[in-house]
Specification:
Layout (H helix, E strand, L loop, with lengths): L1 H11 L6 H15 L15 H10 L5 H14 L3 H6 L2 H8 L6 H16 L8 H5 L6 H12 L8 H10 L10 H11 L5 H14 L18 H5 L16 E11 L4 E5 L10 E2 L25 E2 L4 E4 L4 E11 L10 E3 L1 H4 L6 H14 L1
Helix pairs in contact: 2-12, 3-4, 3-9, 9-12, 10-11, 10-12
Length: 367
């Protein structure tokens, strides 16, 4: 309660801020209200580039709440980038399973190998060198340079886009507004404490300048915010209408051997869910014909269609899968591209979320 009262008093007493005052005002706020995160260095301590890189890769299109447990598990298992580089790819994929956007895991492992082999396990501290690493784009390179090495780099994620859009009441909708937002953000980035400033901007967007019901009364930048002056901060950033997400359908075949083993296979290393374990199934198509599904079964068996279906939403399409189950004799050999996994080991496979849903539905129907 005391903190809330102090913040209200501070913001209500603020004079009108100009652009040159924004960074100092934000850093003052950050020093008092910064979030405590497992990958973030404590005040006065130097950030660990490995931890910063690992967290930034995991946080791409994923919430802080979802990432925390995965980050801590990765760090406990592979506390240095060299150890991660030496890990088998299938173990990295298993550890990542459930976090989604699996190309990140493949790039994570590839990047660790490059840093270990070409940089002796020490991350480069310049944006251009960071950009050359696998899986590191402009945002991630800027974030690592600023947060890990305190280089002056402009870090713009979704939170920062929202803050800048409101500060300047940018009417152009996203994503076409991104270049303008980057220019505005660049002009505000300070020479001193750029890493703290980048994290302060992210914290402001995550805790105060939220998408809905922003706490403008508590914002250290309230006096500079054009959207607040207009009285409609929640309408920013403007967004172009979303295209309708197409739908696809398919079937999956849950085969259990008499000894309890389940048939699985590994998806190709590239492409959607690349390198992950899957329950064998059909191609996912917009014109899927359920009556022809068994023609794509991995082997002949007495299949029965399970009641219900599995639904999953990917970035670019929505998926619905119909599940067929069958039991086969103990000595049944696996098809060439498949393998049998004991039921005890099944949960440890590198299943993405959609495959875990299939396993769960099949198990429910076995009870």
């Amino acid at each position: 309660m005391y903190d809330l009262a102090v913040q209200l008093a501070e913001t209500s007493a603020q004079p009108r801020l100009d652009a040159g005052s924004i960074a100092p005002a934000l850093l003052t706020w950050y020093d008092r209200h910064r979030r405590t995160l497992p990958w973030r260095a404590l005040p006065g301590m130097h950030a660990d580039p490995y931890a910063v890189w690992l967290s930034e890769i995991m946080l791409q299109q994923t919430t802080v709440a979802a990432v925390k447990a995965y980050f801590l598990a990765f760090l406990a298992r592979w506390p240095a980038v060299g150890l991660l580089a030496e890990a088998p790819a299938e173990e990295v994929m298993k550890q990542w399973a459930g976090l989604g956007y699996y190309s990140r895991a493949r790039n994570l492992h590839a990047c660790a190998k490059v840093v270990a082999a070409q940089y002796g396990g020490v991350f480069p501290d310049q944006e251009d060198a960071l950009l050359a690493l696998p899986g590191v784009g402009p945002y991630t390179a800027a974030a690592i340079a600023a947060i890990a090495f305190d280089r002056r780099a402009t870090v713009v994620d979704g939170n920062v886009e929202r803050v800048i859009s409101r500060l300047y009441a940018i009417d152009k909708p996203l994503p076409s507004a991104k270049p303008l937002i980057k220019v505005k953000a660049e002009a505000l980035t300070p020479d001193l404490r750029p890493g703290d400033y980048a994290q302060a901007m992210m914290d402001l967007g995550a805790t105060i300048c939220t998408p809905r019901n922003p706490a403008c009364a508590l914002c250290p930048l309230r006096a500079a915010c054009a959207a607040v002056a207009q009285g409609d901060p929640e309408t920013y950033p403007r967004k172009a209408p979303k295209a309708e997400r197409p739908s696809r359908q398919g079937a999956a075949f849950f085969l259990r051997r008499a000894d309890g083993a389940v048939l699985v296979r590994t998806r190709p290393p590239k492409g959607l869910l690349g390198g992950m374990t899957e329950i064998p199934g059909t191609e996912w198509r917009g014109d899927f014909d359920l009556t022809l599904a068994l023609q794509e079964a991995p082997m002949a068996a007495p299949y029965r269609q399970l009641s219900g279906s599995v639904e999953h939403v990917f970035t670019h399409f929505a998926l619905r899968l119909f599940i067929f189950a069958a039991s086969v004799p103990k000595k049944t050999a696996a098809p060439e591209d498949c393998r049998w996994v004991s039921d005890a080991a099944l949960d440890g496979e590198a299943f993405p979320s959609v495959m875990r849903k299939i396993v769960a539905l099949a198990r429910e129907n076995e009870v």
